[in-house]
Specification:
It is a single chain. With about 90 residues, the protein is mostly helical. It has a domain at about 60-94. The chain is built from two helices and no strands. The protein is elongated and about 95 Å long. About 0% of the residues are buried. The model has no long low-confidence stretch (mean pLDDT about 80).
């Protein structure tokens, strides 16, 4: 019988990677995130609005009109709170 040679493991010689540096964030000026009334984001939920209407169907145009009405009500409530010297909108502003 032939003698078996033991397999020797060769150590891999790798270069050690340089330690990663943490990225530093640059200070960016804050942007005004308020959008104008040209493109209104949807405040209302279409499915909840449809569930609230029990005896009728809901038109697709109804959601946009309701959303616009909600924006108007909020703007009026905000103006009333500011005219009363407050920065908080309360239920009585509606």
């Amino acid at each position: 019988m032939a003698a078996r040679k033991k397999a020797t493991k060769k150590k891999a010689t790798r270069k050690k990677a340089a330690p990663k540096r943490k990225a530093t964030k640059k200070a960016t000026p804050k942007k005004n995130t308020r959008k104008k009334n040209t493109a209104l984001d949807m405040i209302i939920s279409k499915s909840r609005t449809k569930n609230a209407v029990s005896a009728c169907n809901v038109s697709g145009e109804f959601y946009a009109a309701l959303n616009e009405h909600v924006y108007d009500v909020i703007a009026k409530a905000e103006a009333r709170a500011q005219s009363n010297g407050r920065k908080t909108v309360r239920p009585q502003d509606l």
